[in-house]
């Protein structure tokens, strides 16, 4: 599986919508800036069907400096978190998504074998390219 960059997302959106890349880039950057700003203010951002962004408190705790072995106290702090919606979790864990991920991995390794899904209820079949 490859990492998808912000630039790659912008390019894909531009290709599928026909909008200018600079406009898409501006919208995405504004969205991310606003998201960060609202989290800093202590808000929770819920995007239905996608997930929820929030900041959660993390308690103070002792830790150890690996170089010196000295015990240090890590102060209480806020930690950003994201929880996927059940819709996204279901899509990620669906049989089609799993097969698609396995096929992408097989293809990247140069395999001649691909997996195909016939239906939701039936097991997967293996076929050659």
Write up this protein.
- With 129 residues, the protein is α+β, with helices and mostly antiparallel strands.
- The chain has 3 domains: 1-41, no CATH class; 44-84, Irregular (HU Protein, Chain A), CATH 4.10.520; 94-129, no CATH class.
- The protein has 4 helices and 7 strands; from the N terminus they run H-H-E-E-E-E-E-H-H-E-E.
- The protein has helices spanning 6-17, 21-40, 86-92, 95-108, and strands at 45-47, 51-58, 61-64, 71-74, 77-84, 113-116, 125-128.
- The chain has a 3-stranded antiparallel sheet.
- Strand 6 (113-116) and strand 7 form a beta hairpin.
- Helix 1 (6-17) crosses helix 2.
- The longest helix is centred in the N-terminal third of the chain and has 20 residues, at 21-40.
- It is extended.
- Mean pLDDT is 86; it is low at 120-129.
């Amino acid at each position: 599986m490859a990492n998808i960059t912000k630039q790659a997302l912008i390019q894909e959106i531009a290709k599928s919508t026909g909008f200018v890349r600079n406009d898409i880039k501006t919208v995405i950057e504004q969205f991310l800036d606003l998201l960060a700003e609202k989290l800093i203010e202590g808000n929770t951002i819920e995007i239905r069907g996608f997930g929820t962004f929030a900041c959660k408190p993390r308690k103070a705790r002792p830790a150890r400096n690996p170089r010196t072995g000295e015990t240090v106290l890590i102060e209480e702090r806020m930690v950003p978190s994201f929880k996927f919606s059940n819709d996204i979790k279901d899509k990620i864990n669906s049989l089609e998504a799993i097969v698609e991920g396995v096929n992408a991995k097989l293809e990247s390794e140069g395999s001649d074998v691909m997996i195909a899904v016939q239906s939701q209820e039936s097991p997967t079949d293996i076929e050659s390219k």
